[in-house]
Design brief:
The complex is a heterodimer of chains A (441) and B (299). With 441 residues, chain A is mostly helical. Chain A is built from 19 helices and three strands. Chain A folds into two domains: 3-278, ABC transporter involved in vitamin B12 uptake, BtuC (Orthogonal Bundle), CATH 1.10.3470.10; 285-428, Winged helix-like DNA-binding domain superfamily/Winged helix DNA-binding domain (Arc Repressor Mutant, subunit A), CATH 1.10.10.10. In chain A, strands 1-3-2 form a three-stranded antiparallel sheet. Chain B is mainly α. Chain B has one domain (3-216): ABC transporter involved in vitamin B12 uptake, BtuC (Orthogonal Bundle), CATH 1.10.3470.10. Helix content of chain B is 80%, strand content 3%. Chain B is built from 13 helices and two strands; from the N terminus they run αααααββαααααααα. Classes of the chains: A mainly alpha (441), B mainly alpha (299).
Chain lengths: 441, 299
Amino acid sequence: MEWVPILLGDANVRWVLAGTLLLGISSGVLGTFAMLRRRSLMGDVLAHTALPGVAVAFLLTQTKSVLPLLAGAVVAGLIGTWCIDVVTRNSRIKEDTAQAMVLSVFFGLGIVLLTYIAQSGAAGQSGLNRFLFGQAASLVGSDVRVIAAAAAVLTLLIVLFYKEFKVLTFDPGFGAGMGLNIRGLDRLLMLMVVVGVSIGLQAVGVVLMAALLVTPAAAARYWTDRLGVMLVLAGAFGGLAGAAGTVISLFGPRLATGPLIVLSATAVFLASLALGLRGGLVQKAWRHLRVRRRVALENLLRTLYEAYERAGGGQGASRVPLQPIPETRVRQEGTGSGISRGTLRTLERRGLVNVHRSGVPGGERFIVLTAQGLSQAQAVTRRHRLWEMYLMYEADFRFDHVDRDADDIEHHLPPEVVAELERRWQRERAEPAVPPSVHPL
Amino acid sequence: MLIEDFWVMLTAGLVASSCGFIGVYLILRRMAMVGDAISHSVLLGIVLAFLATRILGGVWMFAGAAVAGLFATFLIQLLHRGGAREDAAIGVTFTGLFALGVVLLSLYAGDVHLDTEHVLFGELAYVPYDVLIWQSVELGPRAVWTVGAAFGLTLLVTGLLFKEFKVCAFDPAFALSLGIPVTLLHYVQMTLVSVTTVAAFESVGAVLAVAMLIVPGATAYLLTDRFGWMLGLSVVTGVVSAWTGYAVAVWLDVSISGAMATAAGAVFGLAFLFAPRHGVLPTALRRRRLTRGGTGAVA
């Protein structure tokens, strides 16, 4: 770790690192609101619209200092959002088309202006090129001070108006009823996004600025359902990506900072997508597996119970002894995709069935429910039948459709629903523990 | 007119036609920003194809780009179905793929004539000097052939699947009930978008390919209510914008592709204001005549 002090000893590196870190934090936080308001791609649009603004600001002032260029970018961004608004409100053009149009036409105009500046011989046009791909390495103290100030103001505004923005995001109608100026708040948020995008252009560039807004917020979404937590997480992810991208870029002279920051953010996103606790892939797969296992177990239990019924058991006459059933027959009659070895073994381990093996290797196996297994199988079958009856009598399904539909949902019935179904059943006939099947078995 | 001008205008016209044509479907299916995503993602495909074959251009580059474009749409769908908002899915996907493309490019192919600025803006002015030679016969600029081939492919596939594409564009649920393989057709169409974009962005660049994809179609959407007319008008407005842009670019000595995009925007602006049925001014006039007629009747 000897390079750490070397890195941080360099004043310029410190400035750049501070700049990208702050930038990541503020755009992560702003991006959360943008994403929740379904405006993620506005970052992309605004970054592109900034280009003509920057060019015009340069033409007017003939300086490359940050503030006028930033002002140009903000003004152009506001004009761009206004254009989208006017076009979608006054014609049948949809929002996505309007966004793509404003993005590409403004960018085209920006390119025209840049080439115009280049051929008109104005000095230092190269300074404008860094807006395209960003050159974090070129950030100097004064740039960072501007970025830091803007990022701080943006974050502070979010904290100050946290409740108002929350209402705006989730229930604007309610907010209007409370007397909040919803339109004003919407405009304020949009202005903040415009400023947030504009300060990032120098570091990350036009094309990839969108990522800084979208990706950390999208990653945070996989970890929490709470807005406050999500804001903090998105800010942290954004800051992490900014710092990581900057540090990695120091290792190679050819590595541009902007794309590396974006790739770091993408890596964080991918990790969240895989491991996130709210809909991450691993968690989803695990849940899916558990449900499938439960369904398989319950189906096997029901098959066994129905075989027992055919032998004369159930229907109040539960004195009939339990018969061992050959596994091949269970397979033939079984619901769903048959029975797997694992399912049978699990039931055996839980003491719900006993499996008798005939001595011959590869020979037939016999399955018999235990007493405990019988009562569980009874419960499972009762739920199935109750649900079938509901589908037939209340939802008017044909009896030959009932079995399959019941299979689809019965495993997911919450206890309250089962209790309600049971009450109905009891009301009609105060009879046996398991109602008879509504269709031929 | 110089022969160079002719070639540039022919290329620009072909780019505008092929983009304008396929763009109509993107607009009707509300996938304009997916077009943006594809046009950025193809960079990764081009870079990978180049790193694998060390050949710039040709079939492999097209294949790589088409695969990358398809991969991007596939990822977007996957994330969207996994619960992410669609706009967020688009944003995350294309920026990630584009950034990866840029980094690979700067790491392994920094010395090649495939710099990122070229990818972003293209350069139509150089088109006439990159000539396709076959058995020592000059066949004209390579760009004309690639863009022409992409347009031909699009026309062929769309011609064969015209009705199916139309139903999918307006009523995908109905298409599904007719037994049309909607998802397959979706990917066929996205392949066409990728191929068109690659062909176009050699000459106009990624971002401005988006302008040519979306803006003429949107203009046509304001001018007509008939699907066939919309396709035709989109091509025509695209070509008009391209040539106007070229003239302006030559006059002011600025970027051709940038001027083309700006001209397309201006043409859209005209349609937005003056389109007979959907324009702002005719609508306002109609409304005024109605109000006046109304008060007249009362009086």
